[in-house]
Amino acid sequence: SNVSPYPVLAHLGRWDGTTFQPVTSASLPAGKLVVLTHGWAPGYLAAYQRLQAQSTDLVTVWTPGLVDDANVSMLATWAPIAQALQTADPASTVMLYSWVDQSATGANPLEARRGEDATEVNGHRLATALDQAVVPGFAAEGGQVHLIGHSFGANVATTAALALTVPPRQLTLLDSPETTLALLGGAKNDLRYKLPRLDIGRGPGQTFVDNYISYVGIRFSTFPGLDQVVDVQTAPPPGDGPGEKHTFAIVWYRTSVEDPGAGVGYAWSPLAGGDDAALGSYYQQPDPANVLSLSEIEGPPPPTVGTQLLVAGSDLAVPASPAGRGATGTVPGSGTAVPGAPASDAANGVALGGPSPRTWNLTFSTDEDSLWLDFDLTLTGRAGDSVAVFIDGRQRYQAAAPEAGTGTPGAFVVLYDVAPGDHVLSVSLTGATSTDAADPATTATVAGLRLSSTADIQRNLTAQETNWLLIAALAIGLVVVVALVVVIVVLIRRLRRRVRPPAEDLTGAAAD
């Protein structure tokens, strides 16, 4: 369900030179704020479950004893880059967002989809946590945010970038899984559909996006609306295994932080004083032995480039109902209804809290082209009270009062990762955690529900589709093995017949 019983701030840690420390509300000063986000945590599930069973606090990446099946801590990866970023700019605040509670699985690669399924809601949680953690007036006083996400963390960071009250100045993507192999395993981020929602560019007030590919990443600057992205194809050492190749993007970027004189990677960052205006669209690392030596393959996009992702929109109809009775929300053409909604007294939406119920359900239909579900959220009342949005029982969105994250108009959940058909949208008003009740005075309005769509969406395979694909592959493999055995047997028999001497030679040899 992706529901977390812990406050969003519990997921944030601040680097102190040794580890990450807890963060309290309104404690982060205006200035440069760098936020790291990890990805899938295979092999960490057993340790996480053991530690969480012993603690009333959220177990995080920096919790002592959290190691994988090989006794390796995630801090072995994230502590060095956190320290490098802090050393590069001692006045900055370096953070890590931990969502290992929902990204930890067993070591089986087929479990990766479980981490992918939790990326969207954790992106919204990250945005909400940052909005709560920074001092009031953070942006007005010159505060700027740099989000850095690796693997599934690239999806978390991208969602957070779209959900922050003030967009980040920079978004750095480290080997976001986008290949066909990731799609077949249900683990493709599909950031090409989210990124165009950002105002990506090289100028003030825009978000600079740099993307580093090491194993399962792809170029983004070739997609509509993403011509301003800077893509870098790195070259992991030839002897690296798949896991090392995937994490090499982190190593590469950390190396660029440690060596700003190379003039690439971190040195491009506008938050580090870099000039991103003249950067090319695509770079390659030609020599694995020379990490920071890049060749520019494509220069800056022409000023006239203005391609955008073509998106069509249509309103969802939310019928009203008599006060005090459960409304039945429907979408034209779906033919399905879900009872139990409060009176719909908002424009194309509902009001929650106060005298109205605190939960609402609506059944709606999607098709092959359904991309996002957009809505406007107004949330007022006790600080920390939250609104959660679910699709088919899986939480996809979270925001907290006062208006934070996507609390301003323009909230959304993705639909390109669900199969076409009927789905249930659920909205819930709670306290700071899913187990707490909201204050009686807290109210929320979800309005302006809109479906957006685009053509030719490539969706992740479902778990069932992946299983059928594996069964088919095994069956084909078995047939191939059997066929090879038959061919080998036939060839051996023919070879024996060819080398056997004629009968008269055998007779003569016996006589001699």
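That was protein one. Protein two is written in the same sequence-then-structure order:
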Amino acid sequence: MLVPANPKSAYRRVERDAAILGSDSRALTLLCFDEFNTSLASALHADRRGSFVQRGDALLRANAALSALHAGTDPAHPLAGAMQEMFGAAERTLRSAMVRFTPGSVEIVLRDFTDIRAALSAS
């Protein structure tokens, strides 16, 4: 028997898919940052509520968005080395959070990526 889909999740997936199809590389980058930041914020919220399954799901979504950012970085860009190092540190924090969730560490990563997203949006 099919499990009924969560309507909120279904609409979110459709909205995200439509945004991806109509995006250039800059918009896709911003979309990945948004997904990453939203997922980290969701993980923190789920942790405060004691919803460990939702926290894990949010961390998996954050990891997927971070992997897309990491893979999509142009190695010829002058900031590529710094970005790859930052992505690697964020990945280590996420892996650690999947085993032992430390809200302070996740909040630091969220703050850093929120700042980067704001700077990208302003440029």
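The longest helix spans residues 25-49. Keep this in mind for the problem set.
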